[in-house]
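name: query_chain
kind: protein
chains: 1
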Amino acid sequence: MKPMENSTKILADHRRLASEVEAAAGFDVTCTKDCQVLSAELKTHDPRFPVSTSTLKRFFGLVHNPSALSESTLNALARFTGSTSYRRWLESPSPKDAQGLTALESMADGTSDGPGSDEDLKQCMRVFLHQHRNEGPLQLSKAEFDGLRFMWFEMYRRGTFDMALWSEVKQHAHIHNYILEQFPPLDFMASFGEVMVKEYLDQSSNSLQRAYGQGIIAAGMVAKGEPWPKVMEQLPRTTKLDPNAHPLVQARNLGIVLLGLKETGVSHEQHEETKALILKGLNEDKAIWPQWCHHQCYFAFNLADWSVMAEDLEVIEAVQENILAFRQTSDKYGSDLQMELLLDLRILWNHIMLGQKEQASSMYNALEGHTFHTMESRTIRMWTEGARAIFRSSKRELALGEMAHASILSRYSGLYDRIHSLTLQHLD
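structure:
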C-alpha cells in the first residue's frame, strides 16, 4: 500500500472507530465538555487504560492533530466499543452504527447475508450493554428487541454460549433480569442454564420472579429425568390463578404439576384441583389476563406440551379450542412467524393425541421444511422429529435418530423418553 493510501485508510478507520465510540457512549462528541465526560466514561469502563481529554480532542478532530495516536489509546477506545483490542477491532466488521443494533436488526429481518460470526454477536452484545448500562426499565424498539432476541437465540442454537460474556451481562442487574425473563435458556438446563436461572433466583425480589425461576428449574429437572419428589419441591403450590402473574409462568407450573400427579398418582384430589384451575384458565383467560391475552394465547401455548405428555385428552381438547379461538380473532398483520410455527406444532400434536390423523397429517405437510429459530431449538427438534417419524414412514429411522441426537445434545433423557414413547404409540 502506498503511503498516501495508507494514510487515507488510517483516517477512515479512525473515523469509523470514532463513530462507534460515540454510539457506545450514547452521545456525539462535539466539544471539550463532551471529551471530559467521555474521558470519565473510559476511566469507569477500565481504569487501567485512561484516555485524557486532550487526547480525545485530538482524536475527534476538535484540535489540530500533529502526532499519531498511541496504540494504548486506540486499544482503550476499541475496548470501549466491545472489542478486545484495536487490532481485533480492525479485523472485525462494525457490528453497530449510530442507529443502534443495526447489524442485529438486519440479521433479524433477513436483510443481511448471514448471521455473522460468534465474535460479531459478542461484540453486538457488548455494545448493547454500553448503550443500556444505566439502570432502569429497558425501553427497546421492536427492531432492537427483534435484534436482541435473534442474537440470544443464535448463540443458544450454535451451542457457543460464552460464560465470560454472561459475566459482563451480570454486572447490569436490569439487563440480566430482562434477558433471563425474555430469553431463558430452556434447552440448557442440564448445563450453563441451571447456573443462570439459580443466579436469577438468588437475586429475585418478589414472589412473581421466584415462581418464574422455580418453574424453569422444575421444567429442566423433568426434562433431565429427575425424580418427581425433587421436582415438586421446586414448585410453589398454586391454588388460584393470579391476574398479576404472566399466564406463561402459571401455565408452565400448572402443566408440570399436572404431569407429575398423573405419573405418580399420589393425590387424586390435588390432580383434580390442578386440572380445574387449568380448565378455568383456558376458558377464562381473556377475563383473567386481559393485558396479555390480546397479544397471544400464552396460557394455552405453555400448557400444550405438558398436557400432551400427560395424555390428558380433556385438557388437550381445551388447549386446542383456546388456540383456534385465538387465531380466529387475532390480527394476522405483524404476527410473529416463529410463534405461529410453534403454535402449529402444538396444534399438530394435539391432533395426533385426539386421534385426528387426517388433520395432523395436513398440518405436518404445511410445517415440513420450516426452521424453528427459538431458545429451545433442541427441544423443539424432538417434537418435530417425532412427528416426522409418524407421518414419513420412509424416513422413520432417520427421524428417530435425529430425535435421539437432540436428546444427547441437550442431555434431556426424561423429555426424550416421553416424546419417544408418544411417537411409538402413534406409528401406523
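note: DSSP finds 23 helices and no strands in the chain.
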